[in-house]
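Something for you to look into today, if you have time. Could you write out one complete protein record for me, on any chain you like? Leave the record below and I will have a look.
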Amino acid sequence: MRTPISARDLELIALREIRSLPGGEHVCHVEIVSANADWSLHASVRDGGDLNRIQHATSVTTTRLKNRYQLRSDW
């Protein structure tokens, strides 16, 4: 059973998790982009970040969060 969560709370959790991964320290903002029942993470990055590492960190975090949380559209 996945836990219901608001988009804002999920963004904060995603930002914290991405920053904890190698290369993620250059991420300054994360946004949830939802399309019907599915959603994805879009990360804003400061100069100096390795885009390959950041893409990997974002992908891993998205997979983990999709397994744990269900995005609540009514919050």
